[in-house]
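Posted in: Structural Biology > Protein-Ligand Complexes

Title: Requesting predicted complex, zinc ion in pocket

I'd be grateful if someone could produce the 3D structure tokens for the following input. Sequence and ligand are given below.
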Amino acid sequence: MSFHIVRTRRIGRQHPLVFRLASGFRRFQHRWYHPEEPLFQKLRDGQTPLALVIACCDSRVDPVLLTDCRPGDLFVVRNVANLVPPYAPDGGRHGVSAALEYAIKHLKVQDVIIMGHACCGGIQALVSGEDDSGDEFIGPWVDVARHALEKVDAAMPGADRAERARACELWNVRLSLDNLLTFPWVKEAVDEGRLCLHGWYFDLQSGELLEYDAKDRVFHPLVGRPHLHAGHGAPVAGKRV
Ligand SMILES: [Zn+2]
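-- Reply #1 --
Done. Output follows.
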């Protein structure tokens, strides 16, 4: 069977979602495909992304949108709860490991960013521990972060579910950073100064972007609360970075 581009069909235009997304694609074309914008002329020859970003699937936390990047800027892996399973050269189908290997060995990225976020459904599934949901794949997948939850429960006895979830989201960023270092070629690149690892957390409640400080083992604001001015109908808020 072969596939043909049939330019006369218009069925998709009658579907509201397809219409909306196709309209968006036209705006994308208008932005990036014109003679004065040579970006895609360059990208046709290959990619040299600035960084590998490992983020959650969550629709609210698109790394390219959050960082206002251009096509070709970020090599992105997204999965439920921005997890990095530890190095396991067992012949299995390891999607995160494959992307990591490609980014580091072939694209030679110099920075890897783990981007966690607030209100993460994957972490909430881990924290709730409900095994009667009928789900087949979510539980075993988020169990990759169980060590983070164990750390939280040891450090915060008596915490309620919301507190445990937020702390686990933050610990999970640290865990993914630790798991990156179980890959021998990642550790080697870090030890040789060819690769830098970053742990970020997008607090979509406050609008802040936090960065993990491995030396002090705390998260600091990398970008503070958003500037809310009169044009947005809200008062100026708190400390800014
Ligand atoms: Zn998430």
